[in-house]
Amino acid sequence: MIILAQFTPNQNFKYALMMETTPFNLPNPIPKQYVAFIDVLGFSDLVYKSQHVQLEQYFQTVTEILSEMKRENQKIQSLNISDSIILITPDDLNGLKRLIRAVRKIQRKLMFKNILIRGAVSYGEAFFDDAHNIIVGKGYIRAYQLEAEAIYPRVIIDPSIISHLAMDRTELMDSLNKSEQFNSHSNYIFRHNASTNIENDAIFIDYAYALKEEDTKISPLITTVYNNIKKNLYSDQKFYAKYNWLRNYFVGCITQSLQLTADKSRISVLKDWIRKFERL
Q1: Residue 265 DSSP SS3
Q2: 3-class state of residue 267 by DSSP
Q3: Could you report how far apart the first and last alpha carbons of the chain are, in Å?
């Protein structure tokens, strides 16, 4: 449930006066930036079925993450409108990395609440006026349009970003996946290989790798995801493709993690999880 702030008459007058006296200035040209547009899957069902707890968890989680980014001055502009989250960062490789890192954090935090998201990261003209809550630009529109093309619970990367950075796909993957922010088991972008049983139809943010710990313990998120898939995979045909993709994605990620570890205890646990996911 969205709770609107309550203002005293004096506060209302001051807010109205501020809106009247604060001019809106659209820069010309509009700066080119990276934009992420994220949408919550199944949000209308949460609203119509009055899933108060999950709705409250969604808004609380997103509010906390966006507030944390502002406190840490991460140079990320953000806007949350109902089931949509918009993030904007400056036009440089570090800006793109910050944006992807923020998206991954939102993905994993919401997955712990059994809330799946879909979205896209694009590049182009984008301007956000925080004082007036106005967002405009071709980059924003492009990210909004691409979100539907993600299809599954993932956030895809606009292929035009590769051209913008004057790279090929391999160079982009190497640039993003070798960040000092993450260890060898972690990637910004998902790497397809022979062990992944999902179609190589898009470049997307790899949010499962960030959720595996480096010792014999396995992230509790895997249990959460497994139970969520088990509950929904065969509940309705309209959910099947989404949860089948999620199952295959996690099987692929766990398999890749298995190939990178020599710890016998971890190998045993990972093999057990692969068997459990594949049996679904």
Answers
A1: helix
A2: helix
A3: 34
- Spans of all domains in the chain: 27-209, 211-279
User: Is cis: bond before 159, omega within 30 of 0?
Assistant: no
Q: Is 23 exposed, middle or buried (0-12, 13-18, 19+ CB in 10 A)?
A: exposed
Q: Are 249 and 265 in contact, with CB atoms under 8 Å apart? A: no
- Kindly tell me if the per-residue pLDDT of 180 is higher than 60: no
Q: Are 191 and 173 in contact (CB under 8 A)?
A: yes
Residue with tokens 């049996």: 279
Instruction: Please name the residue that has the structure tokens 């990276």.
Output: 34
Q: Name the pLDDT band for 197 (thresholds 50, 70, 90).
A: confident
Give residue 45's region: left, alpha or beta (phi > 0; psi -120 to 50): alpha
Taking the CA atoms of 65, 70, 75 and 79 in sequence, report the sign of the dihedral they define: positive
CA-based nearest residue to 270, from 233, 225, 216, 201:
216
Instruction: Name the burial class of residue 45, with classes exposed (0-12), middle (13-18) and buried (19+) by CB atoms within 10 angstroms of its CB.
Output: exposed
Q: DSSP secondary structure string, 73-93?
A: T-S-EEEEETTEEEEEE-SSH
Which neighbouring-strand residues pair with 32? 125
Tokens of 53: 């707890």
pLDDT digits (tens, 9 = 90+) for 244-279: 999 999 998 888 777 777 778 788 888 999 999 999
Whether domain 27-209 has CATH 2.60.40.10: the reply is no
